[in-house]
From TrEMBL:
Gene3D superfamilies assigned to the protein according to its UniProt record, in alphabetical order: Regulator of G-protein Signalling 4, domain 2 (1.10.167.10)
SUPFAM superfamilies linked to this entry: Regulator of G-protein signaling, RGS
Positions of the RGS domain: 43-151
Annotated gene: si:ch211-196h16.12
SMART domains: RGS
Protein name: RGS domain-containing protein
Protein source organism: Oreochromis aureus (Israeli tilapia)
InterPro entries linked to this entry: RGS, RGS_sf, RGS_subdomain_2
Pfam families, sorted: RGS
C-alpha cells in the first residue's frame, strides 16, 4: 500500500518540487505565447487539440500499454461528426472494438454504462457515446495525464518547442 510522501527521501521530494516549478513555468511561458502547441501542459483538452501534444501523449500511452483510452476518445470524436448514414456502422464498430467485454481494445467502463450503450446500439444518435467518452476522458485526466506530465515523453515534447 501507499505509505505517503513522508517515506520518500527529502532529496526526492525537493527534486519533485523543482521539476513541478519548472513545468509550471514552462506551461505559463508557452501559454503567454498563445500558440496551440505552446499550451501543451495547460490541461488535457489543450493537449488533445494539439497535434504535437497528441502525438506525445499517444507515445506515452503506448509505452504504458494503455493507448486504447485515447483511441476510444478519438473514435468518439470522429463518430460525433460523422454523417447520420454512417453512424450505425461506426457505432457498431466502436462498440465491438472498445465496449464489448470481448473487445480487442476494451476500455474500463462500469456495467451500467455498458448496458446503456448496448440498449441503444440499434438506433444510435450523435450523443450515443457521450457518457462513456466523458468517463474515459475523466480517467485520462485524473490518471494518465498527470503521469504523462512526469514522463520523458512530456519532457521531449517541451524540448521540441
Amino acid at each position: 500500500m501507499c505509505k505517503g510522501l513522508s517515506y520518500l527521501p527529502s532529496s526526492c521530494l525537493e527534486k519533485a518540487k523543482e521539476m513541478r516549478v519548472k513545468l509550471s513555468h514552462l506551461a505559463e511561458t508557452h501559454h503567454k505565447n498563445k500558440t496551440q502547441d505552446g499550451r501543451i501542459l495547460q490541461d488535457l483538452e489543450t493537449l488533445l487539440n494539439s497535434k504535437s501534444g497528441l502525438q506525445a501523449f499517444r507515445a506515452f500511452l503506448r509505452s504504458e500499454f494503455s493507448e486504447e483510452n485515447l483511441q476510444f476518445w478519438l473514435a468518439c470524436e470522429d463518430y460525433r461528426v460523422s454523417p447520420s448514414n454512417l453512424q450505425k456502422t461506426k457505432a457498431c464498430s466502436i462498440y465491438n472494438q472498445f465496449i464489448n467485454p470481448d473487445a480487442p481494445l476494451e476500455v474500463n467502463l462500469d456495467a451500467e454504462t455498458r448496458e446503456a450503450l448496448l440498449s441503444v446500439m440499434d438506433s444510435p444518435c450523435p450523443k450515443t457515446f457521450n457518457k462513456a467518452q466523458q468517463r474515459i476522458y475523466s480517467l485520462m485526466a485524473k490518471d494518465s495525464f498527470p503521469r504523462f506530465l512526469r514522463s520523458h515523453h512530456c519532457m521531449e515534447a517541451v524540448k521540441a518547442f
